[in-house]
Structure formats: C-alpha cells, structure tokens
Specification:
The chain is an all-alpha fold and about 170 residues long. The chain contains 7 helices and 2 strands, in the order H-H-E-H-E-H-H-H-H. A two-stranded antiparallel sheet has the order 1-2.
Length: about 170
C-alpha cells in the first residue's frame, strides 16, 4: 500500500472514530435528559365538586370524595331531557353529572375581553384563562412580566359542544 493510501485510510478511520464519539455523546445527553427531574412551580385547576385549588383537589382525592351530583336546574332542565328508559330516542337516562362550578362567573373585563366576545367563548377557554393566570400567580410569577417574552403555552381542549350550541343562538352573539 502506498503511503498516501495509508494516510487516507487513517484519516477515514479517524473521521469514523470522531463521528462515533459524537454520536455516543449525543446519546448520553439524550438519556440524561430523559431522566432529569422537572419541577412544577405553579398549578391551577378546576374540577367537579367545587375543586378550584390544588389543595381542594388533593382533599377530594385523599378522602375518596365523589364529585358526581344531580344536575341542578340552573345548569339545564333535566326533566326535559331525562327518561329512565335508556332506549328512548333523544333522551338521557342519567340525572347526574360531574360538573365544574362557577363557569358563568368569568371576569371578562379582567382579561380585556368584551362582554360579547366572552359570551361567545367556550367555557373551557374561559376556565383556561383563569386557571393559567392562577398557576402563574401560585408560581410567584407576575403574568404581566411575561409580555413580549418567548413564553409558550401548550394545551389541549376536547369537545366543541359550546360551539354547536352557539350555532343555534347566532342572534345573541351579534
């Protein structure tokens, strides 16, 4: 083998070794990051059973309380929808639900939202705003300090029942 060929082979071996070391380092970093502890520094919540704080949530869980209640008339007229026969079309055969309290007490002005816009907001979105604010406050963070910062919020909301209800009440939103 010529000296230049030996040098090229050595150079290739060195490159492969360095690439392998780099891959090994990246793998170690990934494995470490998978096991690093995280800290929850602020939390807010709304759950059925008048559970509006992490402390009341813990109390509900630790005492084995049940948050299912008979549907109150201020939520909806259950008698219009109820039938004990589960096979009755268009009716429900259950008079109970796990409901989040005070969904109608959103302070739109506090969040700079007009009354009209607040009325069209899904209650899940209203609760999300309130709970997010509370989580920041519980973390000792002034939410106004986050303005113009690279702060992200990642969430998911299911169901769009409220939007479907709104389609039948367009006149009220206008």
């Amino acid at each position: 083998m010529e000296p230049s060929a030996k040098k090229d082979q050595l150079s290739l071996s060195k490159q492969m070794f360095l690439a392998l070391k780099e891959a090994e380092t990246k793998l170690e970093m990934m494995e470490r990051s998978r096991s690093e502890a995280i800290a929850i520094i602020g939390i807010g919540c709304r759950f059925p059973g008048n559970v509006n704080t992490p402390e009341s949530f813990w109390e509900l869980l630790s005492n084995g309380k049940d948050a299912v209640v008979e549907i109150p008339p201020e939520r909806w007229d259950i008698d219009s929808y109820y039938d004990p026969n589960p096979d009755t079309p268009g009716k429900m055969y259950i008079r109970h639900a796990a409901l989040v309290d005070r969904v109608d007490q959103f302070d739109a002005q506090f969040f700079g939202i007009s009354g009209r816009e607040a009325h069209s907001l899904d209650p899940q979105q209203r609760i999300l705003l309130e709970v997010s604010w509370e989580a920041l406050e519980r973390a000792g963070i002034n939410p106004h300090q986050l303005e113009n910062t690279q702060t992200g919020v990642f969430l998911g909301i299911g169901q769009n029942d409220y939007a479907n209800l709104g389609l039948n009440q367009v006149e009220k939103i206008r």
